[in-house]
Each structure stands twice: as C-alpha cells, then as structure tokens.
Amino acid sequence: MPELSRFYGIVVQMYFEDHSPPHFHALYAGQRAVIDIETLALIEGQLPARARGMVVEWATLHEEELREAFRRAESMEAPPKIAPLL
C-alpha cells in the first residue's frame, strides 16, 4: 500500500485498485481509519480525536492532490507523495 504522507506519528496510505467512494487510510498508535476524500467523513475505524482533527486539517489542505492520488492508485499507478501537515 503506497504511503502518501507521514506527520506527527500519523501515516496516510492508499490501496491500489481500491473501491469507491474515493478514500484514504490513516494509521495512528495502532488504530486505523478510512476517510472519505469528498466529505472527510469517517467511513470505518477510529482515531483519537486529536489525530483525527489533524488528518481532517491535512486532507482539507490537500483535497485535489488526494483526488488525483486516488485516481492514480485506482489505475494501478503509484500516487505521488503529499506534503505533511506542518
């Protein structure tokens, strides 16, 4: 699974040929969440509130890049890295 970004102990990844809706996976402290790119709603899993807030902030800043990354991963192309939350 390609890693898109890493910040504050959070790892953001995408699977190749993943299903709709467009989404990404966030991992933090042994927990995993799947986040919808369009709505930033939690599809499944959970993260601590602070980590989830940082993931949503990061995703808001990189919505277009996430859409493109999902499109590429869906086509079995390596998605580009996305800058971390600073």
Layout of helices and strands, plus pairs?
Blueprint: E1 3-7, E2 10-13, E3 23-28, E4 31-36, E5 42-45, H1 49-61, H2 63-74
Antiparallel strand pairs: 1-2, 2-3, 3-4, 4-5
Describe the structure.
This protein has 86 residues and is α+β, with helices and mostly antiparallel strands. It has two helices and five strands. The protein is globular, with a radius of gyration of 11 Å. The mean pLDDT is 96.
- Low-confidence segments: none
Class derived from helix and strand content? alpha+beta
Mean pLDDT: 96
Instruction: Count up the helices.
Output: 2
Rg over CA atoms, rounded to whole Å, is 11 Å
- Distance from N terminus to C terminus (CA atoms, Å) equals 24 Å
Count of strand segments: 5
Spatial arrangement of strands, main beta sheet: 1-2-3-4-5
- H-E string: EEEEEHH
Strand content: 25-35%
What would a concise description of this structure say?
Helix content is 29%, strand content 29%. With 86 residues, it is of the alpha+beta class. Strands 1-2-3-4-5 form a 5-stranded antiparallel beta sheet.
What are the salient characteristics of this protein?
single chain; 86 residues; alpha+beta; 5-stranded antiparallel beta sheet
